Each structure stands twice: as C-alpha cells, then as structure tokens.
C-alpha cells in the first residue's frame, strides 16, 4: 500500500504584494509542475529516497532534508493528539529547482505533510497543518512566511492575513491571464536576496506599496483585470533584486513589446513571470525567453494558469 501527494510550484510577492501575496501555478499543457512525495509501508520507523530532475541538489544526509524535518514535525503534532506516527518509507520526487523563486522548499514541505496526513487518515485539520508548513518553511528561510506554502497547499491566489487565527484568504483570480514563467537555471538564495534589500524605505515608497496592494485586492474582488494588472509593480524588492538576474532588463523590455500586461520577479528570483491575455503572444514570449533568457540546460519556461486546486493526493505510484 502507498499514497502519493503532489504540491504545485508557486510564485510569491507577485510584484505588488511583498511577503503577503502568493499564487500556485500549473502549466496549461497539463504537466505537473511541482514536487511529489510517496509514502509506503515500512519495517523501520523512517527511510527516505530522493529521485527526480533536481534530486542531486539535495543534502546526502537524509537528516538534513526538509522532508525528514516534516516527519519529525508531524510526529510531534500527532503526539499532541495522543497518536503515534506510523513507520514510513518516503520518496521525494524533486521536480523544482532549489533557490529558483518558485517555492521549491514549500512544494516539498506541502507534499510531504499532505502525504503524511493522508497516510494517517487526516487526523490534523487544514489550519493546523498549514501552521506546521509555515514552521517548516521558517526552518529554511530563517523566518516564517506563508506566501509560498499557503498557495501551494490551498491553491489559487492567496492574500496573507496571519491575524485573528486566519492565515490567508483566497482572492478571486482572472482565468484569462496566462503566466509566462521563466527560470534561467541559476540559483539565488533567499538569504542573499533579502540581504540586498535596504533596511529602511522612504515613506513615499511605503505609501505606494500600500496603495497598489489595496487597489490590486479591490480589483480582484470587483473583477477589474485591467486595473489589477496596472498595479503589478514592485517598489520594494525588484529595484534591488533585478541586478542579481542576468538579462532581466532586456527580458522586461521584450515582454512589454510582446504585449505583457506586467512583468516581475517570482519570489526572490531568479525566476521571472509575465502576465498576458493572448496565447499567441505568450507563446512568442516563451520562445524568446527560452532562446535568450535561459542560462543553461537547467532552465525552463512554462505558460501557466493559476492552480486553483493546490496540494492533492494523486494516487499510489510516482
């Protein structure tokens, strides 16, 4: 017997919502774009295998792998319910590159905890599990952020609340938007991306950030895609992080010339995204980015919609 859980890639910040917006992504061609975790019965308490395109980027020692930390965290959560964790053989299929700005660690975390919860017949509720996912993410990034784990787990576009017992809320999204997502094949650590940001911002920048975020949320709730797209501008991170991404300025110019409504950095980079409404134009930009923005064979470019479903159990085999 076994169970396989899948957790999609995600884009955090979405330009206008630094640390408070995140969206789950799914390619329009139907491919899975995220990590998968398989759990099988075992004669020992725990074992972990890593497979997949980016498995070679993971620590050799399984105790340093975030999936093992998820196992320990889930074990502690079960203990609070006076339940014991079952012996498990876990297999992580690592399909997202580490340090890509696509929620790679969140995808592994969410898939692992979704699989563990399914394996134990869902004893832990969604809110508690999401809190645990945030805690696990914090072990990697140094502080708890939900802007990747929340959309990865719940799907769609999530607005982080983290007040009054509410972690996030789903925003209405625009089905006609295509998200052209390009990962150049290089790595930028979250720590490096945060260190390049200034310690303080001007009052005018803070006001612009708040105004645009408020307008974007309003536009989502009132079905105004043109207004929402105009608000997808970043005054907090992009002016500084863009210098870490080779070819970013040229890619932005080509995206604008190709009909993109907006372009920005996914998470802390180096992945970039462009929002478009015309599929032919999106395919044209995808071709240009593949030929000119990608740095090596590790890179890729997908045309995506928002993944409204989020994490789910797929079946029993990888």
TrEMBL record:
ATP binds at residues 97-107. It is an enzyme of class 2 (transferase). The lineage of its organism: Bacteria, Pseudomonadati, Pseudomonadota, Gammaproteobacteria, Alteromonadales. Belongs to the GHMP kinase family. Homoserine kinase subfamily. Residues 225-289 form the GHMP kinase C-terminal domain. This is Homoserine kinase. Keywords: Amino-acid biosynthesis, ATP-binding, Cytoplasm, Kinase, Nucleotide-binding, Threonine biosynthesis, Transferase. Catalyzes the ATP-dependent phosphorylation of L-homoserine to L-homoserine phosphate.
């Amino acid at each position: 017997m076994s169970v396989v859980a899948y957790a999609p890639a995600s884009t955090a910040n979405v330009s206008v919502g630094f640390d408070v917006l995140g969206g789950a992504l799914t390619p329009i061609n139907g491919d899975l774009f995220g990590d998968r975790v398989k759990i099988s019965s075992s004669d020992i308490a725990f074992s972990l295998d890593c497979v997949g395109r980016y498995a070679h980027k993971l620590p050799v020692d399984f105790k340093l792998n975030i999936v093992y930390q998820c196992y320990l965290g889930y074990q502690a959560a079960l203990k609070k319910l006076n339940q014991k964790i079952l012996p498990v053989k876990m297999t992580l299929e690592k399909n997202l590159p580490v340090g890509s700005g696509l929620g790679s660690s969140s995808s592994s975390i969410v898939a692992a905890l979704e699989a563990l919860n399914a394996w134990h017949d869902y004893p832990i509720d969604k809110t508690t599990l999401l809190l645990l996912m945030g805690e696990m993410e914090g072990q990697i990034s140094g502080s708890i952020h939900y802007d990747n784990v929340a959309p990865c787990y719940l799907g769609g576009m999530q607005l982080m609340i983290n007040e009054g017992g509410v972690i996030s809320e789903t925003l209405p999204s625009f089905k006609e938007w295509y998200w052209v997502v390009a990962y150049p094949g290089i790595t930028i650590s979250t720590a490096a991306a945060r260190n390049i940001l200034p310690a303080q911002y001007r009052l005018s920048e803070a006001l612009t950030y708040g105004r645009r975020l408020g307008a974007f949320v309003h536009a989502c709730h009132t079905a105004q895609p043109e207004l929402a797209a105009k608000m997808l501008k970043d005054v907090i991170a992009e002016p500084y992080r863009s210098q870490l991404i080779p070819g970013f300025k040229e890619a932005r110019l080509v995206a604008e010339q190709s009909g993109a409504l907006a372009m920005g950095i996914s998470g802390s980079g180096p992945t970039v995204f462009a929002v478009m409404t015309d599929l032919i134009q999106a395919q044209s930009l995808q071709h240009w980015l593949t030929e000119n923005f990608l740095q090596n064979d590790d890179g890729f470019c997908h045309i995506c919609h928002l993944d409204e479903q989020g994490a789910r159990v797929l079946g029993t085999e990888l």
